[in-house]
What does this fold into?
Amino acid sequence: MKFGIFDHMEFNQVSLEQLYEERLQMLEYADNAGFWCYHKAEHHFTPLDAAPSANVFLAAASQRTSHIRLGSLVHLLPFYDPIRLIEELCTLDHLCGGRLEVGVGKGISPAEHALWGRDPESAQSRFEEAFTILRLGLAGDTIHHKGAEYRYDGLVLSHRPKQHPQPPIWYPGNFSYAGRHRLNTVVAGPADVVAQSVQTYKSLVADADTDWNPGVAEPVIGATCHIYLAADRDQARARVSTAYPKYHQNLSTLFKKYDVPFANGDPSLGGNVELALSLGALIAGSPDDVSNHIKDLVSKSSVDYLMFSFHWGDLEHQEVMASMRLFVDEVMPGFKL
It folds into this structure.
């Protein structure tokens, strides 16, 4: 069983300098504790993300960690010049000693595209072209491409990634698409939903249309949710009663401001704590509660990678670190091979 961390890095009451330092301290702890990977989200113009340039923050994290893998989940490809992104990813892969994981997507927020001055309706096509160029640039040093936005006639790249043939690639949000192209992915939901997703994904990987993850022997599918541990269940549930609605507030800011509906449903479930607990979007309890939840999920789904959000909503750094220590000291040992 592998454990990882997913992080939006929401704004809170501390300065940005302190926020970044506290997150780096959290990553130093996770690195020493044996977490497998740290995945950083990307969002813009919103309190949901205080570090929208994942590459900048991950570069800093690469110098404060030694073992934990570092990656995006995801780079919003429609917002990037793909050649510059390739150069930055290659640089980052060397900075972290070949620990880079690369997540890609088009983004779930139409308002972010509009605020960048781009038509949200063209997001999918812009993503597909940028992703094509990204794959070409990671696979070889010469790019031939003629598309709607970008044209390269034998462009030669100086930068190559440290990992050979390239860093692993993740595509969340559509496990069927990921499976057909052997891309790593992550899913969420109750144990039975996760189980069906894992089964379908693995069957698609076994008969994939293409391999966009060369070098990855067995693509990864993980499950994710928000988590908070305390000494007892009542204490944990009381704390998330304000933290989870704050997370929802941060996530939904642009959607509410511009009156845009969530295309596939609100990931934060309207900030409804009881609903989130019942659907597996949130785990809040004692170490025993969390262990039992994980055992149930693993037994029903056979998932072997769990990616948790530890720092979210209005949780403070000290609370997050206490929660993580309970997880590391009292939960993780029960799932070591």
About this structure: The chain has eleven helices and twelve strands. The radius of gyration is 19 Å.
